[in-house]
Design goal:
globular, alpha/beta, two-stranded antiparallel ribbon, Rossmann fold
Length: about 290
């Protein structure tokens, strides 16, 4: 029996690569985003995804109902801005406790529909750092949402990843922290299979955890090559990763593969090898 679709969230500071990473992970998704929100996917990944305009939570929920069976994934880019836009729209109709009550109701409705729509659903958001309240209570950092939503929204997800950077990691410094036991940051991993840290690669993280993610229709060969390259890296050892990547990237270009898809392929292969090594190391130790 196949695993139910993933419902996840990734958050990070601006320009950390959140949108590009969900583009790589869900190339056949419907993206609900601001105008021009997928430009980075087009320029880096080499394709332009289907999009719907970023309006309100109610519209996003209707899109899940309408398009959940049409697309294998739905991505809500900049979910924090979608909540803000919904709040502003509601201010024209509600005030006081009623306003916040209606916003909370819309988020809960969105959550329930996202869970049951039968397709992968992923949210991205900017990061809001930890803080200490006036009464001395510490508030964990998380997605840039208001009130208790930085805790409430991640609680409804299978996987919550915080984007960070490791400058020693070349050529892609992006990493994800899981933060499931952190007192400073919100994190979630219901599958208990994601190494911390992990490469910034939602697609390979999900595949490691048993989720089925489709490849781009113009590259049906890609999965076969990713697995072959990752296997070669396993056999050669981590010290040979760079040489294996260089060799395969050149070979893919020689075969007529575009530089976008050649880079995408070796990126996924390298990250798959790294994730599998980390998983094996963790499983081999009781502690």
């Amino acid at each position: 029996m196949s695993k139910p679709p993933v419902f996840g969230l990734s958050y990070a500071p601006s320009s950390y690569g959140k949108t590009v990473d969900v583009g790589y992970a869900f190339p056949n998704a419907l993206f609900i985003c601001k105008t021009g929100g997928t430009k980075s996917i087009t320029s880096v990944c080499g394709f332009s995804p289907a999009t719907l305009p970023h309006t309100t939570l109610d519209d996003a929920t209707r899109a899940l109902h309408t398009h959940g069976k049409e697309f294998d994934a739905i991505v809500i880019d900049e979910f924090d801005f979608l909540v803000e836009d919904t709040f502003r729209a509601y201010e024209k109709r509600f005030s006081g406790f009623k306003l916040f009550g209606e916003l909370r109701k819309s988020i809960l409705t969105f959550r329930n529909v996202a869970r049951d729509c039968g397709t992968h659903v992923w949210l991205t958001a900017l990061e809001k750092g930890p803080k200490v309240r006036d009464d001395g209570r510490k508030v964990r950092g998380g997605p840039a949402l208001t009130g208790d939503l930085p805790e409430k929204v991640p609680a409804m997800c299978d996987l919550v990843l915080r984007g960070s950077r490791d400058p020693m990691r070349k050529p892609w410094p992006g990493i994800y922290r899981i933060d499931t036991s952190s007192t400073d940051w919100v994190g979630k991993d219901r599958d208990h299979g994601t190494p911390d840290p992990s490469p910034m690669n939602i697609g390979e993280i999900c595949r490691l955890n048993g989720y089925e993610l489709a490849r781009h229709p113009s590259a049906p060969w890609q999965e076969q090559f990713v697995e072959a390259i990752a296997d070669e890296m396993k056999a050669a050892g981590a010290g040979e990763d760079v040489e294996v990547v260089k060799k395969w990237f050149a070979q893919l270009l020689e075969k007529g593969v575009s530089h976008h898809f050649a880079r995408w392929t070796v990126r996924d292969a390298w990250d798959r090898a790294v994730l599998r090594r980390a998983q094996a190391a963790r499983q081999s130790s009781f502690f």
